[in-house]
Every structure is written in structure tokens, then in C-alpha cells.
Amino acid sequence: xxxxxxxxxxxxxxxxxxxxxxxxxxxxxxxxxxxxxxxxxxxxxxxxxxxxxxxxxxxxxxxxxxxxxxxxxxxxxxxxxxxxxxxxxxxxxxxxxxxxxxxxxxxxxxxxxxxxxxxxxxxxxxxxxxxxxxxxxxxxxxxxxxxxxxxxxxxxxxxxxxxxxxxxxxxxxxxxxxxxxxxxxxxxxxxxxxxxxxxxxxxxxxxxxxxxxxxxxxxxxxxxxxxxxxxxxxxxxxxxxxxxxxxxxxxxxxxxxxxxxxxxxxxxxxxxxxxxxxxxxxxxxxxxxxxxxxxxxxxxxxxxxxxxxxxxxxxxxxxxxxxxxxxxxxxxxxxxxxxxxxxxxxxxxxxxxxxxxxxxxxxxxxxxxxxxxxxxxxxxxxxxxxxxxxxxxxxxxxxxxxxxxxxxxxxxxxxxxxxxxxxxxxxxxxxxxxxxxxxxxxxxxxxxxxxxxxxxxxx
Length: 459
Ligand code: UD1
Ligand code: CA
Description:
Elements: E1 3-9, E2 26-27, E3 30-31, H1 32-42, E4 47-52, H2 56-62, E5 69-72, H3 79-86, E6 95-100, H4 108-115, E7 122-129, E8 138-141, E9 147-151, H5 158-161, E10 165-174, H6 175-182, H7 198-205, E11 209-213, H8 227-247, E12 250-252, E13 258-266, E14 270-272, E15 276-284, E16 289-290, E17 295-301, E18 306-307, E19 312-318, E20 323-324, E21 328-330, E22 334-336, E23 341-349, E24 352-353, E25 358-366, E26 368-370, E27 375-376, E28 381-383, E29 393-395, E30 400-401, E31 406-408, E32 411-413, E33 418-419, E34 424-425, E35 434-435
Parallel strand pairs: 1-4, 1-6, 4-5, 7-11, 12-14, 13-15, 14-16, 15-17, 16-18, 17-19, 18-20, 19-21, 19-22, 20-23, 21-23, 22-24, 23-25, 24-26, 25-27, 26-29, 27-30, 28-31, 29-32, 30-33, 31-34, 33-35
Antiparallel strand pairs: 2-3, 6-10, 7-10, 8-9
Bound molecules: uridine-diphosphate-N-acetylglucosamine and calcium ion.
Residues 8-11, 51, 73, 76-79, 81-82, 100-102, 136-137, 150, 152, 166-169, 195-197, 223 line the site of uridine-diphosphate-N-acetylglucosamine.
């Protein structure tokens, strides 16, 4: 049977105390609803309907690039009413999985086993047993342990409140049963709402079986109602990502002190020190070492390269056996070829640094192409911007740039050329040439330094 997913996301999220709709608050830099949408697409759903209400405009705008069937629930009259709004898009012949925009971490494997409970004779219901079930709908079973219905906390008798098996809200059902059962619910209950949960007692009365299954981990069904729960789920998500890396052969100095906000591919014997943030698409090949407090976004780091403490790297490709940092900043468009060295307080932007070239101290390299075996001295600056346009600097193979040099682009330094320390170079330097623009040194003999005037004396 084909699968349609309905995601409920119309609620207000009052307890977030935020102008941002609840489902747009992020875990690992991705909105809660984004996690649920990704899970749905991983299940090969033919269609995903999202029921929106509060903040509908912002929610739709955030996911404008995705193929989503948006359904508006103008007034929030309960979960049953919310699902009813999506029914025009549901065919009787398909299986429907109901998820929640504020329950972000349910795993595909749990949902796949839930969906496999669905047939013409049975509904799949995801339940969980909690030490403290307060606030949740309780699962009612008969003496044969068959589910006969769900009772909401506010409608439960003291006896029913003792039940610790609760409704997660997540369920899977055939379209035909969903359409029929939802047409029979009413709002005669303590909250005056149309409860989705009422379909279970109706199903039981009609002889439809309710098959329950449980998630592997209870956090899979945890929802976000406030920022404490958001932070709690963020930590759970991060620990799971850290475990995946360790299973793949990565050493983490402390699995509780790494944040992964994207897709990481790592080879074996990669070592990552504490407080590292990896975002976007990051590839770490074998034997890469990342020092403490590094932030790395959209980067490929080839085997054997070492990123030392406090480096910030974005949209960069780093070849084999390079060293970067400590305190280096590699900005978008940087490419280091094999064995290149970037040292402390060096910023590189939109530049290629050739094989075995060294830029070791206090330097800015922007819009430059640096060849093989080049040495760039401390304090070198490529003056790439004239206030209106950017210009390129080319430093050819085996050139040597003395310390404290300004290279005023556009400019080319030839092969094996040497630039004397302290020079300002605005014209091309030929191959094997020494260029320097240093002012001649003066010497004034027996120079007497000024002395301080005694206190109280006026000038
Ligand atoms: C619901 C279940 C309860 C279950 C609990 C799990 C019902 C009647 N009760 O209770 O059995 O234990 O979830 O967390 O279903 N929503 C809409 N439109 C509405 C109402 C809700 O889109 O009109 C969305 C909310 O945004 C939220 C979700 O549905 O994401 C659950 O709604 P909520 O009001 O929090 O239900 P609970 O009372 O927690
Ligand atoms: Ca809730």
C-alpha cells in the first residue's frame, strides 16, 4: 500500500514564549518540522500533508522549497479536527501515518514497524510506558490485553490515571478506516475538543484490532513544549550522532562535547578533541585530527591533515597531510593542496595554496593563487580590494615573500622570485628576481632621547 504522512503542526506552542512558531525552533540547526519532514521522506511517503495554523505563513515560507501538501486548520479544535482537515488529500486505498511537528526524533525503524501493523483489520498505535504518565492519554486494555480505547488525562477516572502505558499520538491506519472513524467522533469531553484518540474505542467497537508497538528509545516519542525540553532533545540528538561517529571508527575525546549540525562522513582513526562544531557537509578522511574548539562547516579534509585548536573553517577543501592553525581562519573558496601549512592568525579567502607551501604567521591571503613550495613570511597582506573591486594575486612556484609585505593586487610574483621584508609590491616581479621597496636605513650618531620634564613645570 502507498504511504501518506500527515504531520500535525497547528498548535501555538505557548510555553516556548517565542515569536517563532514552535516547529521552527531548531535541533542541530534544523527546524523541528524539518526533522519530521526528513523522516517522512526517508519512509518513501508518496505524499506529506502538514496541518498548519499558528504561524502558518512563516512555517510554509521556511519549507517553500519542499514538496509538501499544506493544509490549514484555522481554529485549533483538537487533534481529530486537525486530521480531518487533511482528509480531502487522503485516498481510502493508502496507509496513513500520523506524526507531529514537535516530536522530532522518531526513528525510521520504529515507524516502519508501526506501519507494518496496518491492515484492513488492524490499526497500528505507538505507545510507551512512562514512570510518570501525567498529562498523557492512557491506553485502556481489556482482560485479554486488547486495546479498547484511549482516555485523555482530563477525562480519566482516578483508576485510569494509574495506568502507565500512554499514547504517543503517533499512529498508522488505512485511509478508509481513518475516513470512516473520523466521521464519527464528537467533542463531548472535558476539553470540548475533537480527539483523534477517540477513533480507537470506535475501532474496537467495530471489531478492528489495535496493534501496539513501542519505540526502541523513549526519547523517540518525546515532544517539545518548552525550551528545556528543546535543549534536552538537542543533547540526546548530539549524543546519538557522537555514537554513530565512534561506531564508524572516530575517537572523540568527549562524546558529550561535540556538536554535529549536518552530515558528517568520517574515515577511520579520525580524532576529534573537545568542543568541536561540525556543520553542513563535512568529510574527514582517515587519520585526520581536529583540535579543541574548532568550527568546521562544509569542508573536505583529506587524510593525515591536522587542524589545530581554535580554527574556523568554512567551504574549504584541504588536501592530504596539511596542518592548519592554531587560530587559523579559512573562509569560503579556500583550497589547500597536499602538505600545505597554514599557521596561527592567518586568514585565507577564495585562494589556492599550492603543494608544500607555507603561510605560517599573521597573514591575510585573499583572491590569490599560490604555487608549489612558496614561503609567505609573517605579516604578509594581499591588498585585494581597492574599495570597489577585488583583484587577484599570483605567487608562482618557490617564490619567497619576506615578512611584513603588502602585495597590491593585481600583481604576479614570478617563480623563485624573492620579495624583501617590509616591501609594498604593486608591480609584477619576474622569475628569479629580488624585489624590495624598503626605504634606506638612516643612522644618526649619539642620539639623545627626549626626557620627561619634572612634575609641576609648565611648557
Ligand atoms: C495528545 C493526545 C494524547 C497523547 C499526547 C502525546 C489527543 C486528544 N491526545 O494530547 O493522548 O498522550 O498527545 O503528546 O490527541 N494540534 C493541532 N491542531 C489541534 C490540536 C493539536 O495541530 O487542533 C497539534 C499540536 O500542534 C501538537 C499535537 O497536535 O503538535 C498534539 O496536540 P496537544 O494539544 O499537545 O495534545 P495533547 O493534549 O498533548
Ligand atoms: Ca502535547
